[in-house]
Structure formats: C-alpha cells, structure tokens
C-alpha cells in the first residue's frame, strides 16, 4: 500500500530541512571563525583587570570621632576621610611647648649669670693690677728699710711693720688672682651648661615637631583621587596605629590586565605589541591594550610552594607566564572596567618585530 504524505507533512519536512541547513551553516561559520581566531590570535581567558587598590592606614591610635566617607564614594585628593580624637596628642604637644619655654628661661638665667661673672672677672682683674702695684711698692719700701736696718738707721719694729704690710698686700694680690680664676672658671662652666640647655631645647623642638605630626595624623585624608572601597570602621571604635581602616582605588594611575598565557604562546610576544581585550561583563565592547612587560618567571615559580620536579613523580604541565597589558584610552572610556573583572585577551600573531 502506497504511503501518502499530506501537505502538512511536506511543509514540516521543508521547514525542518531549512532549520537543519541554517544550523549546519551557522556551525560551519562559527567553526571557521573560531579556527581563524586561533590561527590569527594568541588568546586566553585566564586574565583579570588590575589597578592599584591601596589600604587607608592609620598612623595614630585613638577613638574615631567622625567618618567622612561611605563605601564606593568618589573622593578627591586631600578630602577628609576619618577624624581621630586628638586631645591626648594636643596635651603632649602643650607639655613639650612648656618644657621648651622652661629651657629657654633657664638659658636666659645662664646668660645673665654669665654677664655678671664677666663683670666680676673684670673687677677682679683690675684688683689684681692694683694689688700688684701695692706689692711692688711695698717690696721697694721693705728693701729700703732692710738696708737701713742693716746700717742701724731703722729700728726692727719699723722693719717688721714694713714686712707685715708687704705680707698683707701679697695676700690681697693672691686673693684677687684666685677670685679672677674662680670667675673665669665659672664662666666656662656656664658655657658648658648653656651647650647642654641648647641641646635640650633642640631635642624638645624635635619632639614638638613629632607631637605636631601626631596631631596631624589624627585627620586622615585621601592621598589621591579615587573611589573608596570596603569600609571597616565606625564612630566610637578604638583603633591602633598601623591598622587598616578602609581601601581606596587609585584613579590617577593606569589600569592594566594580567593575562596568564601558556608558555607555548609567549614565544613571539614582545613589549609594545598591541592587544585586544574583551570583558565578560561587556561582550559587545572591545578595549585596546599594549603589552608593557612579561614576567621573568612562570606563575608557579612565585607560589608559596613551587613544584619540585626532581621528586620522581614528574608530570609535565604546561606552565603559565603572566603578561602585563596596559589598557589604552582615557579614564572615562575605561572606567567601566573594575579591578578583578575577567577578560579575554587576544594578541595578533602577525605583528612583526625587528
């Protein structure tokens, strides 16, 4: 019995044939495009966007009294981010300032004492000259009376009076010399004390500068233009110096991609080669990049536990070489690319190198 096909069956057959044909053509086009891509480009999907993400670190400890930012907020260089209670630091600064004033007053006292002793030494020096003249005159008188006494023209009492007067004048002369020596010695002592006080003032001024720095550290500002990341602090929280308080993404530096190419792919790559970058988040957009460096070693060589191929259980594994690629374009054009995003990187094979 001859089987009959209805019009509907023939229509279904035709449509099915066209669909199958379209699918076969699409698969063929996709296959040719994919093969052509592998032939034309060295490509990898083991790549991520990178940019500088720096921690905001406190250089002073204390209680937080104000938080001036929110997560993901845009900030400008110099914007205040956090304020720490600075009363203790200000008290330390004031104490050091008072110590400086005390030392400066002590220095003035030493200056006054030095001037007084200089006048005393000058008076003692004049007294030495006068006493020396008296001793010289009395010595001449004594010598004359000694000669007269020897000639029996003077009495012994007169000679003894002259000798006593000579001894008194000699003693006055010696006392004047001692007073002068004491005054000059004390002047030298005061000079040494002034050096010590001046050194102490210099130390206190350096300490004051440090306290001023500590006060300035209680106001934490943005070091550059950027966007704030995760925030981990709140008002009233006690923090220590060196503690990480937040993260800021630097908007003043380039963004780049670290593409981990197979070692079999990097043989012809050179610094300066052009690269095509497509982010998974924006498959319809292409970004241009430039190779700026190739890692001096494979990624596994920098791992915490590098593989040791001499243990006897060696299995050959194709290694990956990190390639750093700068994303070209102004900040507005590439702002949509965020650190950590996955991207596909395509490096043309037909770039010529000298």
TrEMBL record:
Multidrug resistance protein MdtA-like barrel-sandwich hybrid domain segment(s): 56-249
Keyword ATP-binding: no
Recorded topology in the membrane: Single-pass membrane protein
Coiled coil: 93-193
Cellular location(s): Membrane
TM segment ranges: 12-39
Pfam families attached to this UniProt entry: Beta-barrel_RND_2 (PF25954), BSH_RND (PF25917)
Keyword Transmembrane: yes
GO cellular component, one term: membrane
Sequence ranges assigned to domain CusB-like beta-barrel in this UniProt record: 256-297
Keyword terms of this UniProt record: Coiled coil, Membrane, Transmembrane, Transmembrane helix
Full protein name: Membrane fusion protein, multidrug efflux system
Species this chain originates from: Chitinophaga rupis
């Amino acid at each position: 019995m001859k089987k009959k096909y209805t019009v509907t069956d023939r229509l279904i057959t035709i449509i099915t044939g066209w669909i199958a044909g379209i699918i076969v053509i699409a698969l063929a086009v996709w296959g040719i495009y994919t093969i052509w891509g592998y032939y034309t480009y060295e490509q990898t999907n083991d790549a991520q966007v990178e940019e500088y993400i720096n921690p905001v670190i406190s250089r002073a400890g204390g209680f937080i009294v104000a938080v001036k930012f929110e997560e993901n907020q845009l900030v400008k260089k110099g914007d205040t981010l956090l304020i720490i209670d600075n009363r203790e630091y200000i008290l330390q600064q004031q104490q050091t300032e008072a110590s400086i004033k005390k030392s400066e007053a002590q220095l003035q006292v030493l200056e006054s004492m030095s001037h007084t002793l200089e006048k005393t030494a000058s008076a003692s020096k004049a007294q030495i000259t006068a006493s020396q003249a008296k001793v010289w005159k009395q010595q001449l008188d004594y010598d004359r009376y000694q000669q007269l006494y020897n000639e029996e023209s003077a009495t012994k009492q007169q000679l003894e009076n002259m000798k006593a007067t000579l001894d008194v004048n000699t003693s006055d002369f010696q006392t004047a010399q001692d007073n002068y020596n004491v005054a000059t010695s004390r002047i030298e002592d005061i000079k040494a004390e002034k050096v010590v006080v001046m050194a102490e003032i210099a130390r206190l001024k350096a300490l004051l500068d440090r306290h001023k720095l500590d006060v300035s550290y209680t106001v934490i500002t943005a070091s550059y233009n950027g966007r704030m990341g995760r925030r981990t602090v709140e008002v009233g929280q006690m923090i220590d110096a060196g503690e990480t308080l937040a993260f800021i993404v630097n908007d003043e530096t380039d963004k780049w991609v670290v593409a981990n190419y197979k070692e079999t792919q990097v043989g012809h790559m050179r610094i300066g080669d052009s690269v095509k970058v497509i982010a998974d988040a924006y498959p319809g957009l292409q970004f241009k990049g430039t190779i700026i460096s190739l890692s001096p070693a494979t990624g596994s060589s920098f791992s915490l536990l590098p593989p040791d191929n001499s243990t006897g259980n060696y299995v050959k594994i194709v290694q990956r070489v990190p390639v750093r690629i700068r994303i070209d374009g102004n900040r507005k054009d590439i702002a949509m690319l965020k650190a950590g995003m996955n991207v596909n990187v395509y490096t043309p094979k037909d770039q010529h190198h000298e």
